[in-house]
Amino acid sequence: MIQVSIVTIGDEILIGQIVDTNSSAIAQALESVGVKIAGMYSVPDNADVMEKTLLNLLASTQIVITTGGLGPTKDDITKATLLKISGSSCYREDPGQLEMVRKILQGRGLDMLPSNRAQALVPDKAEVIVNKLGTAPIMVFRNISGKGTLYSLPGVPHEAVGAIPEIVSDIKKHFSIGEIVHSNIMVYGIAESALSELIAPWEDALPADMHLAYLPNMLTGIRLRLSSYADGTTNILERQKAQIGKLKAILGDKIYALKDTTLEQALGELLLERGKTVSCAESCTGGEIAHLFTSVPGSSAYFLGSVTSYAVSVKESVLGVDPAVIEKNGVVSSEVAAAMAEGVRKLTGSDYAVSTTGLSGPSGDGINPVGTVWIGVAGPHGTITRKYCYKSDRKRNIERFASTALNLLRLYIIED
Amino acid sequence: MIQVSIVTIGDEILIGQIVDTNSSAIAQALESVGVKIAGMYSVPDNADVMEKTLLNLLASTQIVITTGGLGPTKDDITKATLLKISGSSCYREDPGQLEMVRKILQGRGLDMLPSNRAQALVPDKAEVIVNKLGTAPIMVFRNISGKGTLYSLPGVPHEAVGAIPEIVSDIKKHFSIGEIVHSNIMVYGIAESALSELIAPWEDALPADMHLAYLPNMLTGIRLRLSSYADGTTNILERQKAQIGKLKAILGDKIYALKDTTLEQALGELLLERGKTVSCAESCTGGEIAHLFTSVPGSSAYFLGSVTSYAVSVKESVLGVDPAVIEKNGVVSSEVAAAMAEGVRKLTGSDYAVSTTGLSGPSGDGINPVGTVWIGVAGPHGTITRKYCYKSDRKRNIERFASTALNLLRLYIIED
Fold first, then answer.
1. Nearest Cβ partner of A308 from B17, B49, B305?
2. Which listed site, A4, A78, B131, B226, has its alpha carbon 20 to 30 Å from B402?
3. Nearest chain B Cα distance for residue A403, angstroms
4. What is the number of other CB atoms lying within 10 angstroms of the CB of residue B201?
C-alpha cells in the first residue's frame, strides 16, 4: 500500500498563529482513494530542519506532500532546500506559472515586482502544475535520490485545497493504487453509540469486501461511509445500493441524504424540489440558523428571511407573540416556540417556518437547565414543537440547537 | 531556550476526519511565555510508531506534549507505550481521577462500566493532574530515560485546551524560562501591508528589547503584539504603554482595543458602558452579524434582535423599505442600506442599528461585482452608509462584510 507523509512548512504554524487545515484536507482526499497517511509533520522556516525532515520521510514513505513556505517574502529557504535535495543545478522560470502571476496581478491592478516574478522560478528538476488560484507554483519532484516523489503545494488554504484534485490524479497516474468505491449515507437525530448498536446486525452481515466508517460532525450529524475496493468484476455500486436499501428499512427518516452533504443543503434541495419557501425566528441560536441557510449558494430562491428576537420586546412587537403567553409559560416554552414560528411565517409569508427559544449558556433562567431548547415548526398543516436538552458550552449548544432545528423542519416537510 | 515537540495521537487525524486544533492552541500558549515549538507531529494508533517517535523527540527536545489516544475504547495502545517508555512497572489507579470519572458519569446519569473505571489507570511513574472536564487523566512523566519530560493530554479539544494553563504552570515551575510581557493592540480597517508601512517609523524606533508581531484574522482584524522579556529591573508594562501611546497618535480610531479581544466583544463592552442597545438588518450577511453579537455571553443586555431580509418582500413588509426606493436604486444601494438600518431600529426600538445589502457570491446582480456591499448605520444622530468591495469567495466575503459592519457601527458610536 502506498504510504504518504504530509509536511507543513512555516513558523506561523509552529507559533500557533494558524491552524493547519491543509493536512486534514489532503489526508481526507487521499484516504478516500485508498492511500494511507503514515504521518503529519510541521517544520519551521529553517533549511537544515526542512532538509533533514524531508530526506528522512522520503526514505520511509513513497510520497511526501508539503504545503507552505512559498510566499513572495519567504520563497528562498524552501525553494533552495528543494533545489538541493532534488539534485537540481539551477532555477528556471516556468512560463505557465509566470503567465498566471501576470494575470493575477493584472486582475488586482498591480504592477509586477521582482518578488512577484520570482514566484515563477522553480528548481530545474521540478515539473510544474500551474496554480490557477495564486502566484506560487505547484511543483512535483520525482525519484528524489532514486527514492520517493515530493509534491510541493502552496500554503494558502484555498490554493492548497484547489491543488488536491491534480495531485490525486497525478498519484493515480504514477502509482498503482486500488480504486475505492464509496457510498455516503447522512444520518441525523441519533447518537453515535445508539446508531452503532441499532445497525450492528446489518453491519455484521455486510459482505467481507465492504467496510463501514462512522464520520460524526456536530452540524451535519453522522456520515456513514460504505467503501469497497473496485475489483473490476462486479457492479460494486449496485451491491452497495442493495445494502443501503436494507439500512433504510432500519433507519427510515433518520437518513437525510445518500451523498456527502449538509442538513442545510439537503433542506434547500427539498424546498427547491417542492417549490416551497422558509423563514425562521431565532432566540437562543441568535442568527446561526439563518447563517446556515444562507451559506448555501442560491438559497435566496427559498430562504425568505429571519427574525432574531433576542429581546422579549422584539418577540412581542415584531413576531407578534402575545405578552400573556410569555407571562404564563415563560420565554423558554412550547407555547412561545410555536408563537414565534407562526409569527415569522405570517410576517414573511413563507410556506414553512422554524423557531428556537432556549438557553445556550453560560447563565440559565433559574427554571430550565442550560442546554434546554424548545423548537417550533409551523407550516400549512399546523404547528409542532419539541423540547431538547444538551449539555455543552455556549458555542456547541448553539450549533446543536441549530442543526436539531433544521432536522425537525426537514421531518415536518417530508411528512407534509 | 527550552524546545518543545507537540504530538497528536490518533488515526482520526491521519485520515483527515478531524482537523487538529489542539497543537495550535498549545503552541500559542507556549509561544506567549517564550517557549519555542520545534515541531509538530501526528502519529497513528500504532505502538511501534508511537514509541519510536516519542523516544526520538525526547532525545532532541526537552519537552514532548501529546494529545489524544486516551479515549475509553483506545486507551490500551497509548498507555502501554507510555508505561514502556517511562520505565513504569505497572498501572496504578489514580484516586483523584477516579473520583472525577465517578462525578462525570453521575452527572450524566450513567453507571460506571469497567471501561470507564480503566480511565483512571495510569503507569506508576506518571504524576496525575486531574482532568476536571473529562474522564481521561492528564499525565506527566519526568526524566524519561534521564532525558525529557512528557505531558500526555486528552484529545477532546475543550479538555486539551482546559489543560493548557496547568501544563504552562508546570513548565514554568520545572524549567527556567524567561518571563515575557505582552501588550496587545487590536486594529481594524487597514490592510496588513498598509499598516506595516504606516507604522514602520514607529516600529523601527522601538527599544531593542521590544518585539512586534502581526497576527491577522478575517473577523477580528490585526492583533499587534508587543513583547519584551521581563528583566526584573524596569517597569516593562509602563514602557510598553508609552510606546502604545505613540502608536495611538498614528492609528487613532483604527485601534479598537488594548487587549486580545474581538470586535463583537469590544462593541458589547462599549454598548454596556453607555447603556445603549443595538439591532441589525442583514441581507447578504444572512445572520452572521447577529450570530457574532450573540456569541458573546451576556449579549442579551444590549442586543435586541435582528431581521435577516433575504427576500425583497421581507425588506418591504418587515423592515418597511419603500418599494419605490428599491425600484429606483436597486437592492444593493446606499438608499436601501439606510432604509434597512432605519427600519430595524424603529422595529426593535434599539438605540443603534446596522445593516448590510450586497453580493457575497457566487452569482452577481448584473450591475455590481460580486464582493460589493453597502453598509448602513442608524442612530440617534442620523444615518450613514458606506460602500466596500472585496474579492473573495462566498464564505470569506460574508465574514469580511460582517466584521466591516461591526467596525463601522463602532466608529459611529464612538463619534456619537
1. B305
2. B226
3. 14
4. 9
